[in-house]
């Protein structure tokens, strides 16, 4: 049953220079700081964590929007990103990144048909009739009538614009789609419709999703597995039901405690998160969570690695949480 993963990350790192007066480099911001992950074909892997923990940097570094400072990205069995490596062009269409509102990128002066043809003109050698057929299939899959193809963005609703934005991406035939906060800013009823659309599209086009969200309830309903990030690292990863029912890392415990509607385990006061996350340009030595951790002990002066099989946590004190 286990196939080769569609996506593998090995020690993936993306640092940004911190510049001071006269543009002098005065430090390093470790936005992504050594991530190992394997994503199976067809699964939905959630990525959660507080704002600023590196979720978008992870997505953009996989996507090639940022070059990695260290480590490697392997996609469909080949290395596609590493320091100094030029990205193979064939990868572009097969790996797609969806911003919060994919409808916002539509050109207001173009008909929807033109907006949908354009990426196919750029990325494929398809003749016009074949492009039109592909577009009609995708437009139907995202739930829009063909007749809409002659309209302009201002003539359709925001929700429909979002569907057209998704259709543009799907027309390229991606295998893996990185969805970055795809439901944030939507009210609950619209959110439900968007999630249903993502589920249907995944089934229709055999997609694999990396689903980035700070909304734990949404992640719980969408994902097969979830990875919890803290200051540029994965601190816990596992099957969704297991991780939500029995989180191992004190940080995951705290995140769940802060989101009562997710209905996580009962938690004690001590697991409420204290303070802001530390600055990623000043990551503490040892366990990066220890300054905020109610269980911190002397052993935490050394950085813990992810331990476990299907459900892993990077915590010396994970036993104490259980
Ligand atoms: N292009 C950039 N240049 C400098 N710092 C950046 C850049 N992009 C992100 N960062 C920093 O990296 C950290 C992680 O950001 P991000 O990946 O956007 O977090 P998240 O998506 O989890 O909210 C933040 O401290 C952010 O300020
Ligand atoms: Mg983000």
Q: What strand line-up does the widest sheet have?
A: 6-7-8-3-9-10-11
Low-confidence stretches: 266-270
Q: What is the H level of CATH, i.e. the homologous superfamily of the largest domain?
A: P-loop containing nucleotide triphosphate hydrolases
Quote the distance from N terminus to C terminus.
31 Å
The appropriate CATH architecture of the largest domain is: 3-Layer(aba) Sandwich
What does this structure look like?
The protein has 322 residues and is of the alpha/beta class. The protein has two domains: 217 residues, P-loop containing nucleotide triphosphate hydrolases (Rossmann fold); 70 residues, no CATH class. Helices cover 30% and strands 22% of the residues. It contains ten helices and eleven strands. Helix 3 packs across helix 4, helix 3 packs parallel to helix 5 and helix 4 packs across helix 5. The site of magnesium ion has 2 residues, from helix 1.
Give the structure's gist in a few sentences.
The protein is of the alpha/beta class.
List keywords for this structure.
322 residues, alpha/beta, Rossmann fold, 2 domains, 7-stranded mixed β-sheet, globular, binds adenosine-5'-diphosphate, binds magnesium ion
Task: Set out the fold topology.
Blueprint: E1 7-19, E2 25-39, E3 44-48, H1 55-63, E4 70-75, E5 78-81, H2 91-94, E6 95-98, H3 112-123, H4 128-141, H5 158-170, E7 176-180, H6 188-205, E8 208-212, H7 216-222, E9 225-230, E10 233-239, H8 240-245, H9 250-257, E11 312-313, H10 318-321
Parallel strand pairs: 3-8, 3-9, 6-7, 7-8
Antiparallel strand pairs: 1-2, 1-4, 4-5, 9-10, 10-11
Helix pairs in contact: 3-4, 3-5, 4-5
